[in-house]
Amino acid sequence: MTPNPVEGDALQTTARGPRAEAEAAALAIDAEPATEALTYSILEEDEDRDVWRIDAFPTTDEEQAALVATLTGFPALRVVTEKLADADWLAMALSGLPPVHAGRFFVYGAHDKGLAPPSAVNLRIEAGAAFGTGHHGTTVGCLLAFDRLLKRRRFGRVLDVGCGTGVLAIAAARTGSKVALGTDIDAPSVRIANENAALNRARARFVHASGLNDARVRGPAPYDLVFANILAPPLVALSHDIKRALRPGGIAILSGLLRTQERRVFAAYASKGFRLERRIHRDAWATLVLRRG
Question: Which of 192, 216, 223, 252 could form a disulfide with 130 if both were Cys (CB 3.0 to 4.6 A apart)?
Fold first, then answer.
């Protein structure tokens, strides 16, 4: 049965409270089947007062009901749901975001085109309805990890699992990767990613695929590096497939997970012979750099 779309205007549900309570609520959102595909973020709003914020954007009545029911289980959180105005709120929000520096990479939107420094690897990323403008802690963590790796070597074949806007595969293509392939289960994201590749004159290619067993993904394997900036449950589920996609000694950069989910995700990969090279923390989020044994 197809879920019912949220009636009326789009909604934003915000929950504020102590870090421990907000992180526990985020874990509960991930664990609830009705909200496993929910778009949300968690960040620190006020360090001095220990105020963290969850912003969630439900797209169906069922998702909204499950979200509110989940957050109600955390009484220390103050929960507010508001209707978003009848405007391109995503474009308006992005227009107020500053460009992002992550190592050698400078990520910007059309509104900041004139700020791109000539010494950086400049990536113009237009989000549309896709995830990955470069501002989220997980995307920044992946770019910082990649920048550090590039100081020692280059990666000929790169795969980006759950590509969103394509920023990670485009970053790889712009720094010398001969193969930079991205996949996503969301068709609009694949379209947006290919448009961003054209904007950046990057030889990155993006395909609509539901997993790593797609022939278009298997063809260029084994890869030297795999990005997977998704969520903790699919990261765990894909551990075997990511190992098979990588050559021995290849690198996996994993993100989309909370710090509290690090052990669970790493355990899944350690059992497949991966070892931890580095971890990066941004706000409540973690990025893991792993090497296949």
Answer: 192
Is the distance from CB of 248 to CB of 277 less than 8 angstroms? no
Average pLDDT, integer, range 214-234: 94
- One-letter identity of residue 31: A
d(Cα 245, Cα 221) in Å, to the nearest integer? 6
| Position 27 in a domain | yes
Q: What does the radius of gyration of the chain's CA atoms come to, in whole angstroms?
A: 19
CATH at residue 52: 3.30.70.600
Q: Residue 168 is part of a domain; what is its CATH number?
A: 3.40.50.150
Its pTM stands at 0.72
Residue 98 has pLDDT above 80, yes or no: no
- Give the neighbor-by-neighbor strand order of the sheet with 100-102: 100-102, 105-108, 121-124
Considering the domain architecture, whether residues 279 and 157 belong to the same structural domain is answered as yes
Task: Kindly tell me if the per-residue pLDDT of 173 is higher than 50.
Answer: yes
- Please report, in angstroms and rounded to a whole number, the separation of the first and last CA atoms in the chain: 43
State the number of CA atoms in the 13 A half-sphere of 259 facing the CB. 14
Q: Quick check: is 169 in a domain?
A: yes
Could you tell me the residue range of the domain that residue 43 belongs to? 11-83
In a domain, 137, yes or no: yes
92 CB-near residues (< 8 Å, 6+ apart): none
- Is 67 part of a structural domain of the chain? yes
DSSP 6-64: PSSS-EEEEEEE-HHHHHHHHHHHHH-GGGTT-EEEEEEEETTTTEEEEEEE--BHHHH
